[in-house]
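Long-time lurker. I teach an intro course on protein structure, and each term I like to show students one example going from raw sequence to a predicted 3D structure in token notation. This year I'd like something fresh instead of my usual example. Would anyone be willing to generate the tokens for the chain below so I can use it in lecture? Attribution to the forum is fine with me.
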Amino acid sequence: MPADVGDEVSDFDTEWEDVRFASRFWERQTPDGTRVDLRVHVLRGDRLTDLDALRDFLAGYHERDPAQWQLAEFPHGDGTGLIGDGQAFWLVEPGVAVSVLTIPEFTESLLPTALSVRADSSGPTV
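-- Reply from a regular --
Happy to contribute to a lecture. Here you go:
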């Protein structure tokens, strides 16, 4: 967990284009309102067949041009993940993926945070 990340935790369940999200947000109150410091999403959907399919899905979800999205590979578990621009993601198994997003202030902690994500019955934990 990055140092200084907000300690207010919220869980959400959503769906977009037949992919379900179980999400946990770490946020803090600021003079301007609430700021989300860290988000962890567990994604489930039949279309998440491999890392390329996950990348394509997330590019559409985040409205990014796949050709312009600069990502680097990193080892995660028994597979490979992709990391860049404050986001790291990987396929846990076909149909299940994890995405970790953070603000620029915590970019240096993104990879260690992503590598610390583990599954449990209550949702994603870091």
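Some talking points for your students: The mean pLDDT is 89. The two ends are 6 Å apart (CA to CA).
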